[in-house]
Amino acid sequence: MDFLSLHTKTFKNGIHPPENKEDTKALPIRQFPFATELIIPMTQHIGAPAEITVREGQEVVRGQVIAKATGYVSVPIHSPISGVVTQIGLVPTISGSKAQGVTIKAFPSSGQEVAVGYCIDYKTATVDEILQAIQDAGIVGLGGAAFPTHVKLKIPEGKVCDYLIINGIECEPYLTTDHRVMLEQGDDIYTGIRYLMKITRAQEAIIGIEGNKQDAADHLTKIKPTDMSVSVKVVLVKYPQGSEKMLITAILGKEVPSGGLPIDVNVVTVNIATVAEIGRLLPYGRGIQERVITITGPAVKKKGNYRIPVGTPLRFVLDHVGIVDDIAEIYMGGPMMGPAVADFDISITKGTSGILVFGSKDVVHTDTIYPCIKCGACVDACPISLNPSKLGILAKFESYDRMVTDFNLMDCFECGSCSYVCPSHIPLVQYFRLSKSRYKRKQALNQN
User: Fold this and answer.
1) Fewer beta carbons within 10 Å, N or C terminal of the chain?
2) Measuring CA to CA, which residue among 227, 205, 194, 228 is closest to residue 124?
């Protein structure tokens, strides 16, 4: 079978929500204008927050480090704009809580040139030097998780990586960010893969792409370097195939064990936009100051894929693209896993992959939650074969220990498939998210 033929292996269960990608998938990436003032929170990645290294009144240039990493599972933050630090203090975040942040007012006539650091050549640099460069560049997973990439790429002692899987699935409805990156940054992607193959020592790299992005698969195949062991596999369209465990099963037929990681089956997976950023930044010694974001939804007037500076206030973004007057819901990310926005004063972060806006006429609210009818739809939908119905009942009784020990709650990655198919409108994924939080809090208290 030709490697561009449809790869028919897949994972168990899953769902097929409407894709809703037509409005933006053909729209090229455009540079978003700079706001006059950017607000940069320090909590932009999983792990220890970055520590601020600038002071109020200090002038900074775009690309300059304004906060340093505070440990191994941490990354620095770079100034997305040239200007003056006007305030250091608590700023709002998407979680609803506040975090330390830096506010920078842009120079009025600045051309926003990017500061250049120490360049890393994949041919001559050591593995440790490349990993350090990735951390120094502030690179995190751009698929939404925002986990520090250098940590993910470090192969543990005694483990071996046979396959490097590049995740170009982008299964969330509405989002077309990765699709456009694949079409427009192919050279950056392959440069990034070179760095990653040297780090992981993988024998083969596989770019996984869903069948609704055939043009991206064709393009990456056409420009594929002849000196690399890399292939493109087009897989069936199904949600949540973008989850790394599901993608590994779909492409390789391997199943990551409960509580395990991809490296346990000799695999490392990396989001394709993250790979592109590695290829775009490391050769020039630059850090992340911006990222590509899909802005769409029925209530958005100027839909598109935009490269937006980190720290750009959401209010400024919405004013620029234009939205209808009667806004009902806004999500940062996709509609399945993205959190709802409750504060227009939050900012774009490294983990922001999309902004979805819905008007009142686009949203059907069902406030009534009915009893579970034991239909089994959630069980059939769950991609990791959990029993969401049983977990939901235990959550109501706050039986968190049983949820974890007897029903593998911690394997749930909150894809929302169970909530999507539930005819009783039970918010199962919200129950599970809250249950995991309370279980972890209880465990921490017991340890203290």
Assistant:
1) C
2) 194
- Contact status, residue 192 vs residue 228, Cβ threshold 8 Å: no
Compute the C-alpha angle 211/212/216, nearest 5°: 85
The tokens of 372 are what? 């579970």
Least confident of 113-122, 179-188, 349-358: 113-122
Report which residue type is found at 218: D
With bands split at pLDDT 50, 70 and 90, how would you rate the model's confidence at 3? very low
pLDDT over threshold 50, residue 380:
yes
Phi, psi of 435 (to 5 degrees): -65, -40
Predicted TM-score of the model (pTM)? 0.94
Task: Report the half-sphere exposure of 409 (CA within 13 A, side-chain side).
Answer: 29
User: Rounded to whole angstroms, what are the CA distances from 369 to 275, 393, 415, 424, 428?
Assistant: 42, 13, 20, 6, 11
| Residue in this structure with the two tokens 């698969």, named with its chain if needed | 217
Assigned token pair, 422? 């539930």
**In sequence order, what E strands does 297-337 have?**
304-309, 327-332
Residue 372 CB neighbours (<10 A): 18
Q: What is the pLDDT of residue 2?
A: 41
Please state at what angle helix 127-136 crosses helix 186-200, rounded to 10 degrees.
130
CA dihedral (402, 407, 413, 414) in degrees, to 10, reads -70
Per DSSP, the three-state class of 284 is helix
The partner residues of 60 in beta bridges, in order of sequence, read 83
Two structure tokens written together for 8: 């028919």
Tokens (6 digits) for 144: 């939404």
The tens digit of pLDDT for each residue in 303-315 reads 999 999 999 999 9
Amino acid at 386: L
Q: What percent of the chain has pLDDT over 90?
A: 88
Shortest CA distance to 388 belongs to which of 423, 440, 424, 431? Answer: 431
Which domains, from first to last, does the chain contain?
6-26+118-284 (3.40.50.11540), 377-447 (no CATH)
Return the closest-CA partner of residue 335 out of 384, 306, 296, 279. 296
Which tens digits make up the pLDDT trace of 344-358? 999 999 999 999 999
Angle between helices 214-222 and 186-200 (to 10 degrees): 70
User: pLDDT value at position 269?
Assistant: 97
What would the two tokens of residue 52 be?
């601020």
Crossing angle for the helix pair 428-447 and 388-396, to the nearest 10 degrees = 60
Q: Which residue did the predictor score with more confidence, 123 or 365?
A: 123
